[in-house]
């Protein structure tokens, strides 16, 4: 059975940092790309970042470039999202998702939630001003 479990969310002041984790099980991790999406209240789910577990290639949305860093520990089947210099507009529920043979270089696919096979339950990130 496939599981994606996010953790690490919380409440932080603007300018602070959080590290989200996405622990995966039930599928061949190296065959998948892992994406992070976020959904603010009343808004759609948007792609934030993505990493290929096979070659480590990455994608970042313009809104988080230079502030967020995605990384993968294949030995632990876990992907991390280090979020620095957080802003109130980063407030959202953050989800990780897995797509088989995903390619972060294909931005249209990497940022399309309908292209992903499996999803976690989400973790809330709240940034206060």
Explain what this protein looks like in three dimensions:
By secondary structure, this protein is mainly β. The chain is built from one helix and eleven strands; from the N terminus they run βββββββββαββ. The chain has one helix at 107-110; strands at 3-7, 10-13, 18-25, 32-39, 45-52, 58-60, 68-73, 78-83, 92-100, 118-119, 123-128. Strands 2, 4, 5, 6, 9, 10 and 11 form a seven-stranded mixed beta sheet that branches. It has a four-stranded antiparallel beta sheet with strand order 1-3-8-7, with no helix packed on it. The mean pLDDT is 95.
Helix proportion range: under 10%
- Sheet-strand content, in percent, reads over 45%
Quaternary form: single chain
**How many β-strand stretches?**
11
Compile the SSE list and pairings:
Layout: E1 3-7, E2 10-13, E3 18-25, E4 32-39, E5 45-52, E6 58-60, E7 68-73, E8 78-83, E9 92-100, H1 107-110, E10 118-119, E11 123-128
Keywords:
four-stranded antiparallel sheet; 11 strands; single chain; mainly beta
Question: Quick recap of the structure?
Answer:
This protein is globular. The protein is built from one helix and eleven strands; from the N terminus they run βββββββββαββ. With 129 residues, the protein is mainly beta.
């Amino acid at each position: 059975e496939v599981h994606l479990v996010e953790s690490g969310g919380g409440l932080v002041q603007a300018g602070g940092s959080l590290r989200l984790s996405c622990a995966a099980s039930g599928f061949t991790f190296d065959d998948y790309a892992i994406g992070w999406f976020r959904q603010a209240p009343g808004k759609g789910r948007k792609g934030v970042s993505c990493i290929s577990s096979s070659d480590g290639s990455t994608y970042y949305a313009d809104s988080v470039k230079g502030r967020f860093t995605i990384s993968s520990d294949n030995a632990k089947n876990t992907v991390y999202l280090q979020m620095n210099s957080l802003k109130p507009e980063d407030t959202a529920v953050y989800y990780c998702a897995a797509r088989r043979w995903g390619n972060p270089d294909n931005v249209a696919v990497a940022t399309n939630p309908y292209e992903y096979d499996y999803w976690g339950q989400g973790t809330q990130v709240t940034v206060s001003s």
